[in-house]
Write the structure tokens for this entry.
Amino acid sequence: MNLNCPHCNLKYEREPGYFYVAMFVSYAMSVAEMITIAVAAYIIGLPLNFEHLWYYLSIIFAVVILLAPFNYRYSRMVLLYWLTPGLNYDPPKS
């Protein structure tokens, strides 16, 4: 990620450790993905019983690992644009 905006030079990291909060956003995104994948696997036809537990777990963890780069980037974007009040760039009036 860039440290500053290439167009307006806005510094993205407002304080040291600012993006640690993005870990919680990424966690919420991962949990939502896990629930969605489990429900989709059940709807597609994978029976919900103890014998098929490893199928569910392997499918869920494979998809979560594949979506980890997406979660990393978009959790920071969600933090910047939706969860940070007052982070607006107002260019100087010319």
About this structure: The chain has a mean pLDDT of 85. Helices lie at 22-44, 53-66, 68-81.
